[in-house]
Amino acid sequence: MRKMIKENAKSALRARYWPIVGLELVAGALVGGFSGLSTSISKGDVSDLQEFFGGNSAANQKVLGIVMAIAALAAVVAVLYAFLFGNVISVGISGVRLKAYRREAFGFNDLFSGLKQYGRCVGTMALQTLFIMLGFFCFFVPGIIVALGLFEVPYLLADDPSVSGMAAIRRSWENMRGYKGKLFVLGLSFIGWLVLTALTFGILGIFYTGPYIALAEAGFYHEKHAETAAETPVVEA
Q1: Which end of the chain is less enclosed by CB atoms within 10 A, N or C?
Q2: Where are the alpha helices (DSSP H) in 16-117?
Q3: 148 within 8 A of 183, measured Cβ to Cβ
């Protein structure tokens, strides 16, 4: 199944290359751009700032305090932004990837499809993040297992508007039983591409590797459900 998924992902990317890459860039900027900038500001080294302002005079310390307060505020804003808006875009881009893989029509407005069920998307994605964080707090391996188990959450939210938040989390965990290892191996199969991306200072990731991997992950969701449906026996009335 892995080879088929990767071939289908490549084919889907070739079919509508620029629309897919463009929407991935927009989604990445909306989800991670502002958050990354705020986080980088909030992680400024205090000693570097002290050296920059020179000395420990009261005036310099006051300026340093203001700068650190701004950095802390930026961190809070970044968290709120990711929670209130970034989660919605994450669901939207998951839906775009599914449509692209399935060769269905998609457009810019699909990025904001999560706004139609705002509370459901924001709350569910926040819970997914919380559960994954708790897994990593336990240890690295449990964190990976939880992340793999909840992989389907944004796809379920985008693919089935009728599913509730907690139902999406429970369904993802149930659906991924027996498939976590397959998803992990799929991710490992892109190591070569990731090395090439690093050698190009991330440029290849923007214009090929990132969209390719994203479509392959969407393909994993689609093909897994198609496989499960084919294996489910039909009960005659």
Answers
A1: C
A2: 17-28, 34-42, 46-53, 58-81, 87-101
A3: yes
Residue by residue, pLDDT tens for the chain (237 residues) are 899 999 999 999 999 999 999 999 999 988 875 555 444 544 445 455 555 555 556 666 676 677 677 777 776 777 777 778 888 999 999 999 999 999 999 999 999 998 988 999 999 999 999 999 999 888 888 899 999 999 999 999 999 988 988 999 999 999 999 999 999 999 999 999 999 999 999 999 999 999 999 999 999 999 998 877 666 554 444
Computed from CA positions of residues 57, 63, 68, 72, in that sequence, does the dihedral angle turn out positive or negative? positive
Which is nearest to 98 in space by CA: 31, 9, 187? 9
Cα–Cα distance for residue pair 210/128, rounded to 1 Å: 22
DSSP 113: G
On whether the CB atoms of residues 42 and 74 are closer than 8 A, the answer is yes
Structure tokens at 197: 């991306």
